[in-house]
Amino acid sequence: MSDLTDALVEDLDGGFAQVVRWYQGSLLGTALRLTGHRASAEDLTAEAFLRAFRALRDYDADRIAALDLRAWLVTVLLNEHRNTIRTATRRPALSGAPLPDRPAHEPGPAEVAARADPDLAAALARLPAVQREAVVLRHVADLDVPAVAAALGVGEGTARSHVSRGLARLRTLLASHDRSAS
Fold it and tell me: Of the four listed, 4, 10, 41, 117, which is most buried by Cβ atoms within 10 Å?
């Protein structure tokens, strides 16, 4: 059992505060790659932490102790992202211009990466959702293939396939962008 899961078992409120501090940058980076917008990523991350905390209140000590926290939190984030998309498609679009993202005091690692390589961020946004999710979980959230498979709700072979196809499509998109830019 890790120190964080020990802390959760001993004191859910205090332990969860430690979990948030430890994983907030990683989850925000993953959310930013999934959504493409800082404000949406911040909202998604906050909702995922809220959902995770609510779930943990119903878990017994043994179940908490058995968690792979990072993989579990990324799965919660991904499910919350899917729920947000599903809800948005059921509601009519709001009229008017979208609200601008509020400026952050300090950019997170994913935002720095997006600024450093906006072409990669644009190419990721053009991938089919399942491939984008698989690539982001594997290479941004740095989950292993079994954890990616669990988060996506597919078998390991399918997860590998989604990652592989996503990476191949990214290479094609980036190569065509390089050719058009020169």
Answer: 41
- Which is nearest to 69 in space by CA: 79, 56, 58, 81? 56
Q: What does the angle CA 32 – CA 37 – CA 151 come to, to the nearest 5 degrees?
A: 35
Q: Is the pTM of this model over 0.85?
A: no
Residues 6+ apart with CB under 8 A from 37: 101
- Fold (CATH) for 1-90+108-116: Rna Polymerase Sigma Factor; Chain: A (1.10.1740)
The class that CATH gives domain 117-182 is mainly alpha
Q: Which residue did the predictor score with more confidence, 94 or 68?
A: 68
Instruction: Tell me which residue of 85, 78, 80, 83 sits closest to 148, measured CA to CA.
Output: 78
Neighbours of 34 (CB within 10 A): 28
CA dihedral 23→29→35→40, nearest 10 degrees, is 60
Ranges of each domain in the chain: 1-90+108-116, 117-182
3-state class of 152 per DSSP? helix
Percent of the chain at pLDDT exceeding 90 = 47
